[in-house]
Amino acid sequence: MENKQDNAGAQKAGHGGVSPIPPDMATVTPHLVCAGAADAIAFYKKAFGAVEKSRLELMPGKIAHAYLRIGDSAIFLMDEVPEWNARGPKMLKGSPVSLHLYVQDVDAATEQAIAAGATVVMPVEDMFWGDRYGVVEDPFGHRWSLATHVQDLTPEEIGRNAQEMMARGGGDGCAGNQDTA
Prior knowledge:
Helix content: 25-40%
Strand content: 25-35%
Oligomer: single chain
Radius of gyration: 19 Å
Number of helices: 5
Largest sheet: 4 strands, mixed
Order of helices and strands: HEHEEEHEHEEEH
């Protein structure tokens, strides 16, 4: 398995001298399917400060591929196309996947996402692992956990904090994928 450090060496290899992993890409890039990808792009710009790098429309109003950047991370997305077996979370009635976004100020970032149209799944709070953390769902059915790291903890401290949380009856929603119905 390759990691980002390994990519530096891999940049020299490849077919015809072309880098197998483009220099502005990480090894893993989320690829979202959305009902209304153009609207999703507008939402991600407003909610998370996304920058649109490219867009390919195969037919008017249907995005076959778009490339966005949020901070130093790339995200690909496309419109739902059931005949291509590309279905978004609304069509599938949910998704087991959430995207994790580290930000400078989780409270402000969450308020920005809410103002753009996201709904709160889990309010922002201090978590046992040292992050201030919350979860929102975008209007397209994708869940985003937002966090600001506020405390460096040892594995032992995290374990103790987790045990204390469980003893208090906590633990709902840490992964950000619980049902809200």
